[in-house]
Amino acid sequence: MSNLDVLADEGTRPAAKATPSWLREGAGHAIRKLSERQQVNPNYQRDLVEAGRLYERAVHGNRRAMLDFEEAMTTSDFSILFADILDRQVLGSYQDWPSEWARYTRRGTVRDFRTVKRYTLDGGAAVLGEVPERGEYPEADVVPGEYEYRVSKRGRRLDHTFEMRVNDDLDMFRELPITLGRASRMTEDKFVTELFAQSTGPNSTFFSVGHGNIVTGNPVLSVDGLQDGMTQMGQQRDRDGNPIFIQSVNLVVPPALEVVANNIINATEVLAASGGGDGTGNNQLRTANWLRNKVSVVVNPWLPIVDTTSGNTAWYLIANTMAGRPAMEIGFLRGYEQPQVFVKAPDSLRVGGGSVPVEDGDFETDAIRHKVRHILGGTLMDYRMAAASNGSGS
Each residue of 187-224: pLDDT tens digit? Predict the structure, then answer.
């Protein structure tokens, strides 16, 4: 079997059709994004067939063909043609998990790198009492509160050489700026996760019995457990003892609980004993799944990475960011809200004059350097806007 037969076997065409006509049909994938016009150009097709024949003679021991092949491989045109025959491919990078932190974390901006404060006023919202004739209006007890944080720089640098760029006939290094941008988004996701989760489970300072936002018994994620969590959030009160209205919440779960969470939220009806029935036979209650309109599922893949103890079982209820005071905030430096990707300008000039393109690299080593800079910070805020269970059942 010839080497062209082998190439055909590895592709989508049968070995019997591994002929020059097969090459003209364009079974190989062109690199450098060759235009359709070039691929149907008769001169290109003729050269492609010639390249295939030369390669076949070389691998079968024709010494003259091997010398011609080695010489031809130093030319860019032959390299492109030969790449078509070998059908090279560049696999895409892993698909990033969609960034969902904005659904339960307020986004803010700050002016500089100094510590910023977020002030709150607790009180003054109590039900108004009756004021008798000539009576004095009662004074409300208003207590200020504050949260603070500061932003800081995060970044990374990626270098590649002049030789790597020249040899990059598959344009792999053109993806470097995109890769750095994806790293910035992952940085945001992990940073937010580390605000409310820690290595031992839900953040113990934020989620506590004293705050009333640990779901009683730390139940596993279930309809009953979710109902208990919703009940506890509904029982939270402000400083004046008024109820806190939360219109919608996000159920934040690790990938291990994605199926369970979606099964609960997307069920058309719920079978329950609470409300009068005993949970068996005809006494079992059937109710429309009201959770579908109240709870949204958010899958956070960073939870098992940050929480190495209960990362696959813990689940969180976090109020929508529009629900009054948010549970947390992530802030970005004003004017630098998005990650910035840079490439180092060459520090050399041509002898005859004129600047050097970026692709030629720096003066000392011909290195080409990319850098990403992302500036962010954040803090936890109102514990009443969240509830958590580590899923241990105890």
Answer: 999 999 999 999 999 999 999 999 999 999 999 999 98
* SS3 of residue 147 by DSSP: strand
Who has greater pLDDT, 70 or 229?
A: 229
| CATH fourth-level superfamily of 92-394 | Major capsid protein gp5 (3.30.2400.10)
Burial class (CB in 10 A: 0-12, 13-18, 19+), 127: exposed
The owner of tokens 């429309």 is 288
pLDDT, tens only, 242-258 = 888 888 999 999 999 99
In the DSSP assignment, the letter for residue 7 is H
Helix (H) or strand (E) holding 178, with range, is helix 176-196
Report the C-alpha gap between 156 and 124 in whole angstroms: 48
Domain-by-domain residue ranges, the chain? 3-86, 92-394
Contacts of 119 (CB under 8 A, 6+ apart): 144, 145, 146
Contact 366, 162 (CB under 8 A): yes
Sign of CA dihedral 383, 389, 390, 393: positive
pTM to 2 decimals? Answer: 0.70
Which phi and psi (to 5°) does residue 285 adopt?
A: -85, 140
CA distance 394 to 389: 10
Name residue 379's amino acid: T
Contacts of residue 96, defined as CB under 8 A and 6 or more positions apart, other chains included, come to 182, 185, 186
- Bridge partners of 109, per DSSP, are 332
Residue with tokens 């994620």, as numbered in its chain: 221
Bridge-based pairing of strands 295-299 and 249-253 is parallel
User: What 3-state DSSP class applies to 172?
Assistant: helix
Using an 8 Å Cβ cutoff, are 339 and 184 in contact?
yes
Through-space distance between the first and last CA atoms of the chain, rounded to whole angstroms: 68
